[in-house]
Amino acid sequence: MYIFKKRAMPGIGKTLIIFGVILIFLGLLFLVAHKIPFLGRLPGDILIRKKNFIFYFPLSTSLLISILLSLILWLWSRR
After folding, report:
1. pLDDT (tens digit per residue) in 26-56
2. Are 29 and 51 in the same domain?
3. Nearby residues of 61 by Cβ (< 8 Å), 6 or more positions away
4. Which of 25, 42, 52, 75 is the most exposed place for a label (fewest CB within 10 A)?
5. Higher-confidence residue: 6 or 16?
6. How many domains does the structure of the chain reveal?
7. Do 45 and 60 form a contact (C-beta atoms < 8 A)?
8. Do residues 44 and 62 make contact, with C-beta atoms less than 8 angstroms apart?
């Protein structure tokens, strides 16, 4: 007796493969992110240093990454 329908399993398998590829890509991105010279040091990134306190909020970097990801996903959805 099957718990899942036979047709549902290939869809789940494809979804898991896509998520795996995305995780591998993100892992590789984290490995080489420190080599990108301007990432995290853009004008608009907030850095506050006090005696025993450092606050860093990469506002411009976050906006840039968001715009790039939105553009990539928009181009991908148009195919």
Report:
1. 899 889 888 888 777 889 999 999 999 999 9
2. no
3. 39, 40, 42, 45
4. 52
5. 16
6. 2
7. yes
8. no
Please indicate, yes or no, whether residues 57 and 22 belong to a single structural domain of this protein: no
Alpha carbons 79 and 63: distance in angstroms, whole number: 25
Identify whether residues 31 and 42 lie together within a single domain. no
Q: Give this prediction's pTM.
A: 0.60
User: At 8, is the pLDDT very low, low, confident or very high (cuts 50, 70, 90)?
Assistant: low
Residues 79 and 41 in one domain: yes
Residues 24 and 51 placed together within one structural domain of the fold: no
Q: Is residue 1 scored above 60 in pLDDT? A: no
Q: List % helix, strand, coil for the chain (3-state, nearest 5).
A: 60, 10, 30
One domain, residues 53 and 79: yes
Indicate if 25 and 41 belong to the same structural domain.
Answer: no
Mean residue pLDDT of the chain comes to: 84
